[in-house]
Amino acid sequence: MEYDDRHRIFLQGVLNMGVVSRSAAKNLLQKAYTIRGDSLPTQSSELSLILREITYSINKKIQHLNLAIVKAIDENQINKEGYFVLINQLDRSEELTQLTQKCMIEFAPHELEFLKLLMDEMIQGPKSNTADEENEESDDEEHIPYFRKGEIMETRALNLGSRLKSKTLKPLEAQAIIDKFIEKKWLRSSESEEITFTPRFIAEMETYLRPVYPDDISSCSLCNKMVVKSLLCECGKQFHLYCLGAAIPKSKNRDEVMSVPCPKCKASIALRQTSSTQPGSRKRSHNEEDDE
């Protein structure tokens, strides 16, 4: 396919939108074809072929810039839906201590430090703040905040601003930085005030995440691709939500199904894990900590 206005319009759309769904991609193509005076094929197979050809041609043009348009899947959805995202393909494993400062030049150093704190909590779980603990009265039992990998509640995220080494962030300052990450399509916030990673983040940061979090980032036991927001079975296997969702019969409403059998051991896996359904989730007493 000859490089023309269709490619330029599609690339501009991806640049402006950051994360482009299939329906949005179709709208971009429709606009491009209309400008050329052509009709966009309506069959899904033909549309998929055109999208592959266009992204392939664009990637050949921009590969010398270490950029590429790739397909990414949203880990937060039970239905497997692909998105087109423009990513920087620079190997981030070479700058692990600087959190991709060469790639994410639109962010200040203290903003990237804040992102690193958010990533640590979202991937490894809540960490205690020694200074805060010294000012709190000790209880017989320490409450460990409920942790679901790949997300963090907005209130807790704002509180992390006080833990920066380079600059202490007030809640309003922390909120402004989070909003900036959301605007740039690195993070997203749900109606229930949960902050999660976007498909763009997952696609672009894999070369950073795997070496930095080797004990916390694994591969889905079904598709063998990297999974951050994983669903854990008691047998130790981890899965994408959408991979487990694919096993639900089409006759059922996936949004209403609460659990599915593990594809490996057949144990029940809760699709919407809470503190009571997540394997190994519990509170720890001070006596247990002393024994460790």
From TrEMBL:
Keyword RNA-binding found: no
SUPFAM superfamilies: RING/U-box (SSF57850)
Origin species: Caligus rogercresseyi
Disordered, as annotated region: 271-292
Record EC number: 2.3.2.27
Keywords: DNA damage, DNA recombination, DNA repair, Metal-binding, Nucleus, Transferase, Ubl conjugation pathway, Zinc, Zinc-finger
UniProt similarity note: Belongs to the NSE1 family.
Record GO cellular component, one term: Smc5-Smc6 complex
A single BP term in Gene Ontology: double-strand break repair via homologous recombination
Domain RING-type: 220-266
Protein name: Non-structural maintenance of chromosomes element 1 homolog
Catalytic reactions of this protein: S-ubiquitinyl-[E2 ubiquitin-conjugating enzyme]-L-cysteine + [acceptor protein]-L-lysine = [E2 ubiquitin-conjugating enzyme]-L-cysteine + N(6)-ubiquitinyl-[acceptor protein]-L-lysine
Alphabetized InterPro entries for the sequence: Nse1, WH-like_DNA-bd_sf, Znf_RING, Znf_RING/FYVE/PHD
